[in-house]
Amino acid sequence: MLAFTWSELAQQVVDGIRDGGIYALLALALVIIYRSTRVINFAQGEMATFTTFVAWSLMNQWAHLSFWEAFPLVLVIAFAGGVGIERLLVRWVEDAPLLTVVILTLGLALLLNGLTSVIWGGAEKQFQGPFSTQTVDIAGAQISEQDIGIVAVAVGLVVVLALFFRFTKLGLAMRAAAVNRQSSRLVGVRVGWMLALGWGFAAVLGAVAGMLIAPIVFLDPNMMQTVLLYAFAAAVLGGLDSPVGAVVGGIILGLTITLVGRYVPYVDSTLKLPVALLLIIVVLLFRPAGLFGRVSVRRV
Amino acid sequence: MALLEVDSVTKRFGGIHALNAVSFSVEAGDVVGLIGPNGAGKTTAFNVITRLSPPDGGDVRFAGDSLLTTGASGVVRRGIARTFQNVELFRGLTVRENVQVGAHARAGRRTADELLSYVGVGPFAHRRPSALPFGTQKRVELARALASAPQLLLLDEPAGGLNAEEVQELAAFIRCIRADFELTILLVEHHMGLVMGLADRVSVLDLGRKIADGTPAEVQSNAAVIAAYLGTAA
Amino acid sequence: MKAKLLLEALSFALLVVAVVFLPHHVSDFHSRELATVGMYFIALVGLGILTGYSGQISLGHGAFMAIGGYTTAILEVNHGVRDIWTIPIAGLVAGAAGLLVGIPALRLSGPYLALVTLGIAIAFPQLPKKYGHFTGGTTGEILNLPKAPFGLHTTPNHWLYYLTWAIALMLLVCAWVLLRTKPGRTWQAVRDSETAAAASGIGVPAYKTLAFGISAFYAGIAGSLFAIATSFVNPDTYPIVLSIFLVVGLAVGGASSLAGLLAGAAFVYYLDNHADAVARWADHLPFVSVNPQQSGIPSVAFGAVLILVVLLLPTGVGGLLHRLLRPLTSRLYSRS
Hints:
By secondary structure, chain A is mainly alpha-helical.
């Protein structure tokens, strides 16, 4: 173990928060889908990867758009894709037993992962993100625009989402559709389309996550596989139905993994994933609602 | 000593008292009705007795011994069986297999097939419950409960979903099984005719408290009971 | 009921005959392929007990296969134990791990259990790397080639085939006996209604945990045979995607149908190993131009199949068989 210095600690904290921001971005997508449709979407990572590759193609292959030119296009495509998946596939298993839905999202994950490989090949690609990676020295730590940008976007999205769900009519309708479909239908909510919207929003969030993460982890078809587990850990920690929880959970997770990985002698990089898994298990066993989620009591 | 003693049981859900120091007892060989308006706590009482739901206070004694020392799956072994309001049969098993499961922990002299023909569902032995009409499913559930040769049988709204003729058959049927199986029966029921015609004693719950206790005639003329069901005159 | 029994006995007899005589009619290599199908089948039978009968999802059973495989590797390499004797031990070690997982699993319902077991599938392959001194780390361990005992004159592949299928058939019979008698009914009762099961006197936690243990035992044995077959074990022998393959086999075969699971095992094996054939077939489709060597084809195929099965055939091949044969068995029943 290397000697301890304050500036190194500062760097670890910066890295931990930035990694946490990465997990938070994907966790937000997971939370939005869960909150709007009560589905745990195992395909979220692959959906994000696919749309990020589309962005890459718009920027390097089919056209030569800049990041900000491609950005809105990708969001639209992602939204359409999410809505399409819900309306064409997921709607048929809305009321099916759990195993069926799980297998469907798994199948979707496999399909998208394979398609990504087939269309773009398995080789790693460089992805030009929107933020500069030039660093500034603060208290001994190197912080880049990208580090701040990721966390800022995550926080910003949470604020937007919170405002949306809380204060808009559409947000209310979506929340109602998720919690009680029958009653929502009775008051005129088009439940099917609310669920589709949920998937659309989640796809958009996933696309944003992918486009911000790709510059760091490099773009390849399996990019999101491990990030997905961390994102689930963050979402579970924060509460599966809480966007705020996703970000707070993500940051706590990022800090914990980075600091434990650096300062606890036994834990090295190979144990990062198992630690994340352990966290999921512990939270689900002892505090299933997470930090900010709501526990629902079922009437027997 | 009564066969079943519910002793000052309290059960809270959050801030709501589903049961508030409720006490009543069931004598061996009796049919006892537990009635009350919706939300009175009747099914909660059942769930506490069968240990599906732990009470926040009080005790439940069966044949003198506290039931609180057993878990949900031990209740059957002590001799208490129940049916459910919404008929909880095992969808993936046949009717016959459903009844066989009833004898999992404790079995009586009668075989599954004998029980099936006793309740009149013999021909359906190899069918799945979901293919059968509701009334028939209720009979299957009853056979499953009887398979453990219980001393005390808890029936949760047995008349629910039955028409007038079926209710008559049910009343006669309950009298039969009480005799043939030497049972004590506690039933939760909304159907006044069934309860008053069948029960030896009736306990009335309202908003988590017991408000009356006695023979059907006594309870029917009790002012508090009438008020609970019909409201007081303006 | 008797008709169903007869049909099952007949099918089993046919299976035994097929198992005994097939290797004489196919190439040595094909015998090895069939052996691998047998290994998938063993793992799937275990998983069928867990998911199809006791109603608990596991997306991480590849981890139990890995435990079995590594147990065999460690015993053989570090302790010189003969390969066949390591198999039951591997099963027991994996089974113990399954019981351990089963306990916290009791507190996790449906989607959360799926999440945690998927997490196990993703995180577990890291562990052999961490504990390298024990497991050979990333480079792994090399085992002896499978060799027939008593100097029997069979090729390694034939030996592997008979070993695997003898075990598979034994384990199949055990599973069949379990599932057709009280334990099988009990698991199904737990699956269908835990409340009513408890009210009928079933110790629900014990049965659920037991199902995890048994399914892990089966997976461990399959994993052990994998190790013996490849004569080599490293983290890539049991990748994340293995757990997903098992789920695909379960879905395609039908979680509670033993016959269906055999089809599921064959399906998974052949799709994974003959992806190029699938790609060439796909190339014939209009608008599609596919390079058979392209990686990602198996994933596309598996993903598409999973989705189609879920939408069109949710009860899998087993469910289909059941529907086709029901008129036959009920007609026989009414006559007897």
